[in-house]
Specification:
The complex is a heterodimer of chains A (351) and B (395). Chain A is mostly beta strands. Chain A is built from four helices and 25 strands. Chain A has a six-stranded mixed beta sheet with strand order 12-11-16-15-14-13, with no helix packed on it. A four-stranded antiparallel beta sheet of chain A has the order 3-2-1-25. Chain A is globular, with a radius of gyration of 22 Å. About 3% of the residues of chain A have low confidence. With 395 residues, chain B is mainly alpha-helical. In chain B, 83% of the residues lie in helices and 0% in strands. The longest helix of chain B has 32 residues. The model of chain B has no long low-confidence stretch (mean pLDDT 87). Classes of the chains: A mainly beta (351), B mainly alpha (395). Chains A and B meet through helix 1 and strand 10 of A and helix 1, helix 5, helix 6, helix 10 and helix 14 of B.
Amino acid sequence: MTKATRAAAFALACFTLLGGYVAARRSEHAQDAVPEARSPGQQEPRAPILAHSSNVQNVPRLFYRSARSGEFGRVVVAALDDTEGLRVVTPLHCERAHFDERGGLCLTYDRDAPEPNFRALLVDSEFRPYRTTPIAGYPSRTSLSRDGKYAALTVFAMGDSYDGDFSTRTLIMDRQSGQALPDLEQFNVSKDEMPFKRVDFNFWGVTFTADSQAFYATLGTKGATYLVKGDVATKTLNVVRENVECPSVSPNGKRIAFKRRHTKTGASQLYTLDTKTWQEAAVPGEERHIDDQAAWLDDDHLLYGVTTSGAPERALNVWLASIAEEGDSPRVFVAGASSPSVVRNTLQTMP
Amino acid sequence: MPANVWALGVTSLLTDVSSEMLASTLPLVFLLHLHTSPAALAAADGVQQGAASLARLLGGLVADRLRDYRRPAAAGYLLSAACRIGFLISTIPSQFVFFLSLDRVGKGFRTGPRDALLAQSAAPGEEARAFGLHRSLDTAGAMLGPLVGYWVLGLVPGDYSSVFLFSFGFAIVGVFVLLTCTSKPLASHVEPAAKVGDFVALFHHGSAQRLCLVAVLLGVSTLGDHVVYLALQRQHEFALIELPLLYIATPAACMCFSYPLGWLADRWSRTGVLASGYVVLVGAYAAAVAPVHAWCGVTLVVLLLGLFYAATDGVFMAIASRLLPQSTQAAGLSLLSTVNGLGRLTSALAFAALWSTTSDRGAMLVFSATAVACLLASLLVLSHTLNRCERSSHP
């Protein structure tokens, strides 16, 4: 066998193995249909999804984005008490989404098209989009205000600096009309009662307060991150605390879950703080690098996505942790999932 | 063309498919899988640059010391291949960045030995052509890489570990080709292993010193591709998403021009082709900010950048390989490659500062003027060096 033939044989062997692996993974994914056209005008009337499974719409439920074969990228609704037994796979494809009893916000893009066509979909309780807004880049975070007035989103967009760096863009939009408020970068920021303004401001991770009167977000500038509290009406933000990222307000409004980045390693850990006393506590038992804006299962438990290595259905999982020292240690709550949101009220239609 | 040149070309093709597949996918992994900015992937980090430069110098030194170019090159390729496995098991951004740095170290380490092997394997007087063929296959890989990456992701959406696995497959086949299809060039049977004295002599070697100066000057006149593309985008305001197409189109142009320009360099004048390449580069800068129709601007930039790379990279190595002392070929070539890289780094930083103070056109103008000045200085130095070589007898 000449040298070239030997090399060609080795190459053939390698690529056959790789091809076989991809074919195997592909047959697992065979049911991942291309997403249907999603602009409001083109939507065909179809049978209501949840009405058929009326059981799940009346119980406390979890919405999440599935990473499992056959339903990759689709939003799934599952009963909190029986996440594997009572679950409905919706036709909605999202990268990141948040839902409540009225519907939700879904950030998505066209994976198969030459242009990604990033957009934000406001959907009703039947997962039908009623407003589509183009967004500037890759989906990152979503949140909803409890009174149903606002939805917030963060995306990664290519920044304006010559080095092609990505910056975040955060928008709050009116949930009824889809009208977006000015970018958070247009808000007036103050720190220690003085105006605070820098060219490199980046905002991300909005969370609304329990009474929906205000919101918290993260401000990043010059390598530091701050917790800012904002007011939609006056378009102002006030720096409240340092090194607090991706805040999430608890159902009773008494606590905020957040992640804190270690300056040296760049790894983040989950913490909670008390909104009255500003006392902070690490989430007990969870010392891994967690990079997610956590959702609250209830006032004492957090749900968050953890990304490990390997195929998506194994790498992406939603974990449950108790914030009380004496609670159970963190465990996987739903496997092959991300972007969790918890809804306890029964279905309502948008007014 | 000698078998070694073909084999090295195929190895580079496969390795570039592997690397560019990763380069186009890693930002997506950061954005969509890790939900963080891919800024950490940019190679601007000083420590990374330093490590890569050191690796380059070390690779050349080791190759000359052992008088074996194949195995040090293979070691560099193997390290890069192993990094793909690292990506498979990485879960946090800093781990990905670590393996990417290691990949760059491997890449630096193999450059000197590989280029020396190319120079020695080529028939005398046909070095530029050999480099041209090699660069041609190399850029073909750079062109195919992102396409293979997108193809894999299209087959198994969201499964980035499949891309890493494919990347590993291509890289390991490349190493296999290098180890099995190349042989020691005849010249190296004659030369004894380099001694410390030889390396010291390299630093004092007149031609080597002048070549280093030229390498720095030429590096300073070279702006990174992405800067030119960004200037182009800002001029024409087309979607930032089209950027990946440019990263495929320019290697395609370079692939077409590399061998013909190498042939021309051997036949006509290596210095002539090299100089023309840098003139073309200035043309590319002008085209990026010219007030022409968008498609005209894009086509011009792609063609001119492709011509530039085809006319300069391999040709300069061919010139250098004739002027450097035979006993320290690999070390000399890796030294030149390193100082060229440092020159590019300086120009990137300078341009950044310039861009923030003036307009796009202003910055390009100043930069083009600098490039022309550097080119003229380089030509002066080169012709002086070549004249001196002409006078002394050489093979």
